[in-house]
Amino acid sequence: MVKGRLAGDYFREPVVKRLVLAFLLGTLVAAQPAFAQKMKVGYWTSGFSLGFGAVMEEMRFAEKEGLEVEWVKFGDVNGPTRAIVPRAIDLAFGAPSFASMNITADGVPVKIVLATQIAESKWVVAEDSPIRSMAELRGRKIGMTPPGSAMHAIASAILDGNFGIRAGAYSVAPGNEAQIAQFLARREIDAAVLRSITLAQITDMKLRALGSVVEEWKKLTRSSAAPILAVTIVHDEYLSKNPEAVARFIVAVRKAVQFGSKNTLKVAQILQKAANLNPGAALAYASQWDGAYMASFEPADIASLKRMQEILKTSGVARKDPPDSAFHAGPYLRSKQIQ
Fold first, then answer.
1. CA–CA dist 199, 309 (Å, integer)
2. What CATH number is associated with residue 53?
């Protein structure tokens, strides 16, 4: 008891009341569990998706944002887009842009919420190949990622639009990057579309570049925008119930992009373990980070995706346009507000 006053009088003092209230509120907040939302995340374990997924998992960027993630891995490039339809996964962060836009155009209830990878590749042939130019690919056998992948669609559109070589005028040997490189080494194909990371790891044969996907795409579109290879997609039902979780996942992706750009040696160490790469190959992979990855969904990115779909539709690769509602920037804009 305070001298000259009853205890009740003391606790009616304004300052003390505020202190007690603050203490009680602090106790209640401390008693609440931290933000922890379960999320099933799928990605393709080849190409550039493998490196990004390995870094996300090892460095626990999503978990640091309060997410409880179950990583679901696919050996097929189209696995994540197929799995999200029946809700086998909630979100795919490296889904092919072409396939993602097509399923939204078909009415599948998913949203595109982030652009994550640049379609950075080159058409290459063996150094002693008689093929000297892109125009000479007519009638040839070309190794590239399977139909349904964004790179396959982009490469096909470029051959058609820039060189008049329609899909039926050449044959395709589909496969992942490692398989395509082996096809080329065994001379089972005449040319290949390979990413710089794969080319940097090929040391047992000499190759010659015929053209760059990025540069040829800029010619085709008459713009300075690079083609977007992969995007993050999320099922509508999950997004409607957990918008904050999706925003926090995008925060994690953005932090992973920044980390990889500044920590090449650490990324290489992660890749040695996750992809069973030797030190030289892992370092070559990690050194391509800035040219491969992005984490953006600004109006220009959405416009670039829509332009891609228009061109792919004109070339007959795509059937129809996705609705404007399929491009949902809300989680990305929210991610920029989260510290």
1. 28
2. 3.40.190.10
**Alpha-helical regions (H) of the chain:** 7-10, 14-31, 47-59, 61-64, 79-84, 97-105, 150-163, 177-185, 196-201, 213-221, 236-241, 243-262, 264-274, 279-286, 289-292, 299-314, 330-335
> Is residue 155 located within the same domain as residue 198?
yes
| Confidence (pTM) | 0.77
Q: CA-based angle 58:59:60, to the nearest 5?
A: 95
Whether the Cβ atoms of residue 50 and residue 44 lie closer than 8 Å to each other: yes
Which domain does 126 fall in, by range? 121-221
Asked if residues 198 and 275 have their Cβ atoms less than 8 Å apart, the reply is no
First to last CA, the chain: 45
Give the tens place of pLDDT for each residue, 58-107.
Answer: 999 999 999 999 999 998 888 999 999 999 999 998 898 988 999 999 99
Q: Which residue in the block uniquely carries the two structure tokens 């290459």?
A: 124
Neighbouring-strand partners of residue 74: 44
Q: Show the 3-state SS of 312-324.
A: HHHCCCCCCCCCH
Q: Are residues 112 and 50 in the same domain?
A: yes
